[in-house]
């Protein structure tokens, strides 16, 4: 059904709303099939708030899942983002009716019925999440599977006999059944234009008590997923984050033990996706948790910034621990760049990603806290490690768009006489700028395309700029001064100048085609401050609601560094570098 983009009354705001959300999250496990359970009214407020925040920037439709009939562990209102409600020219081609039909046909293909679900819309591309592929055990009987896989704590579907995977008749039946259900899964992936599948599992198949209870695309024997670009990027499961907690919430120096018997999925990434990242992927087993998470995030950002129109799927096993970690980091990183959710304040984007990406998609915070597996806390405390420009999607776009022979500084260094002369400009080169929504409704100039007349023209231009006392540099201070109206329109028009012998397209802003835009570009310092605001708000609210479990003091009597962070978060300490 179609959902209105606006008009939903906010269900609380700021610190209070986040505190209420965290309290509810830490007390009860969300299940759509329960209709919110005893706390139905609180859950409804959370759901309504999410829809209101999505509606600030997007047109969307909703797939109803009121009683968990689509998936018991997904939101009761599954949001399909269709288009940025502002000036973003990109629009999803997905129709909610057809999507819902494909979902109903394909959901059995994935573990716990957690189907491929689009959750972020970026440049018309769907970033999706799901669980891994279901194995024979789940397809033939959910009772035994659910009991084994979750320790008997999850819901069961039906009684099933003990089936041997080695039975030849069963193997043949497996092939036919997998052809059908995985065929529907592939149709769903293609409909969402997903090309890249990032698998975070450290196993090829999940094994419990000697039984293969799940599978994955990378080991599909029939190679049904061969047409997709498969990336095996093994990342430690939630159990590893108990070590993080036990080390006083310190991720630096914490390295996963890759020698464990069950770890059999090597890192595998197509070379074409790694060439621009300057990362030695052969060293991945020596990375600590910080470096591993940073490098995987860089990879995901690079993929979604590729020139094609293909979407991305991220999944682990059940899709409710490692998957929301990276989905949440992607959402926050793109928001910090001013590329998605551009009207949301730090407290609002924090609420949205905690509520939608974690709570409503079934992260079992109650269980994880009881075991000390604090992957949820790690996600938001980790924001301090991705504030620099090297994690910015804008940097990637700028780097790709620079023409050979020019640097960004040289392009931005414009002679005043050139800025006032359309004819002289078009006779040498033309400048085009691609706009996209920036933070707070401003323009962000992402791409610069320069077509020089040749190496002599480049050299002459550089010499002229270097010798002219009137040369100006587009500095960050100038970027943040004034903003274009939010309703402004950028037009790329064709010049009628007869002196132009090259491409004649250029950007017209005001009276001069090369006038330095007075828009607010999200600089590295802006990105850092935005992410730090989100992290600080999270730490402050988390400390007042859930809190950290104190780690026994070391022999030296040192106090945990994270407790100090909490003290600063609630204003009891001054800030310092952590």
From TrEMBL:
InterPro entries assigned to the protein according to its UniProt record, in alphabetical order: MTMR14, MTMR14_PH-GRAM, Prot-tyrosine_phosphatase-like, Tyr_Pase_AS
Superkingdom of origin organism: Eukaryota
Annotated segments matching region Disordered: 484-509
GO molecular function: phosphatidylinositol-3-phosphate phosphatase activity
UniProt protein name: Myotubularin-related protein 14 isoform X4
Organism (species): Lepidothrix coronata (blue-crowned manakin)
Lineage of producing organism: Eukaryota, Metazoa, Chordata, Craniata, Vertebrata
Gene: MTMR14
